[in-house]
Every structure is written in structure tokens, then in C-alpha cells.
């Protein structure tokens, strides 16, 4: 049986029959010349911007003039295991739900909370507000760039030297209030800490009401240029709030007037002198 001769066809014809491009036929993947340099730069950017994903890293590379495809950035990004981890939501502390009861005397219950603001150039200000729930007095407003749990205990000790400490302090579940520093401080001084439920600011309504007035009448009305200026303005506002501002819940008396009237009714001469 005669063998059929092999038929030779051109490359062009073969590609047409196979429906492929000649460029695809001749493509040979090679090692990326700048792969190592690009990979290092991706790692550097991810270290500087730890919460940036590969798309933002790609945008930064393009700003630097790198002609690189986003898919290539994604591949190198994954090879380096730079994926951003989702932050776990902080779980609140389980606390007993209690109705908000009005105290019957000064220094029974204090409420404390934080209010945030910033200086004119953007640096954060943190304001610790402390209110007596009975007299509505603003016991103190501490302004600083950062206030941690140990800082809070020092502030309370300073106040206790001239006013005494309360029986109960009501707070939210911020990390400054649920940490070891405040918990140990309260145990050593016989002060009960009462945490509200997470996400339930109405359970701390007295301080929330005060914070609203503080922000509306003070923070939103001033443009702070420095920490020193912010402290001076806030101190002036606090004095005005206690001494001159009528409070509707106190029948339009000032907190200082209400506290003085209470001491006059319930304290003897020795007690009045100690309060003054």
C-alpha cells in the first residue's frame, strides 16, 4: 500500500485553520525583568499603608510613573501575602441593664465621657467631661491630645482632694473605662463602676445631654489654634456653665446655685464649711 506524501502548509494557513493569531503562536513567556524591583516596591508601600488593598497600591504605583497592570500588582500582592485582614469588632462587656435613676444628693453618681474635637491644623483633641448627675455641675473638663485609663485615674484623684469621690461612676464601654487601670483604682477607693450597655447612650443620658451643650455652645463656636488656647476657652466655658448659665432641669437656676441651696438645706454649719 503506497504511503501518502505529507502535505506541507504554510504557518499562516495553519493559524487560519486553527483560528489562532500568529503572535499567540510565537509568544514565549519570559521572566519579568523588573519583577523583583516591583515586588519590593509593593511590599514597601504596603508597609507604609497597612490598610491599603492592592487596588490602592496600584494607584500609588501609577502615580510614581510605573506602567503596570492591576492584575500583575494583585498577583504579586498575593504572593507576598499582604492581604488586609478584617478587624474584628470589639465585643461589649455584658452588663446588667438598669433604669436611669436620678440621685438624691451630690457625689452619689458622677457620669464621665469623652468628646472629640481638633485643632485648626487637624491634630486631635480629646475632652474628658465629668458631671455630677444630681447638681448638673460640670466637675471638670480635661483637654489633651490623648487620655488613657491611667490618666483618668489621676484626674479623679486630683478632683477627690477638694471635692471627695462619688459612690458611683457611670461610663460607657470605651477602652479607657473598661481597662485595668480604672477598675483597680475604683476597687482601691471603694467607688462602684457602672457601665452602660454597648451602643445604648441613652443609659448615660445626663452626660450625653451635657456633651451636646458643650459641643454646641463651646466646641462649635471656637477655632482652636493650640492646646493651651483650647484649655483656656474650655475652662472659661465650664465656669460660665456652672456659675451663670440657667439650667432648665434645675428650674432655671445655675448648677452652682442649686448645689448651694441643697447644702444650705441639708448640711449643718460644719458640713457647709467643708463643702465651700
Which keywords apply here?
disordered C terminus, single chain, alpha/beta, 5 strands, five-stranded mixed β-sheet, 276 residues
Largest pleated sheet: 5 strands, mixed
* Regions with little confidence, pLDDT below 50 for 5+ residues: 269-276
Structural class designation: alpha/beta
Q: What's the end-to-end separation, in Å? A: 127 Å
Percentage of residues in DSSP E strands: 5-15%
The Rg value, from CA coordinates, equals 33 Å
Helix count equals: 12
Major beta sheet, strand line-up: 3-2-1-4-5
Number of strands: 5
Q: Mean pLDDT, as a whole number?
A: 83
Question: Roughly what percent helix?
Answer: 40-55%
SSE series: HHHHHEEEHEHHEHHHH
Shape: elongated
Helix and strand arrangement:
Elements: H1 11-18, H2 22-26, H3 35-48, H4 54-63, H5 70-79, E1 109-118, E2 124-132, E3 138-144, H6 149-163, E4 168-171, H7 175-178, H8 180-189, E5 192-195, H9 205-217, H10 227-243, H11 255-266, H12 269-275
Parallel strand pairs: 1-4, 4-5
Antiparallel strand pairs: 1-2, 2-3
Helix pairs in contact: 3-4, 4-5, 6-8
Task: Describe this protein's structure.
- With 276 residues, this protein is of the alpha/beta class.
- The protein contains twelve helices and five strands.
- A five-stranded mixed beta sheet has the order 3-2-1-4-5, sandwiched between helices.
- Helix 4 (54-63) crosses helix 5 and helix 6 runs parallel beside helix 8 (180-189).
- The protein is elongated.
- The chain starts with 10 loop residues before the first helix and ends with a helix.
- 21% of the residues are buried.
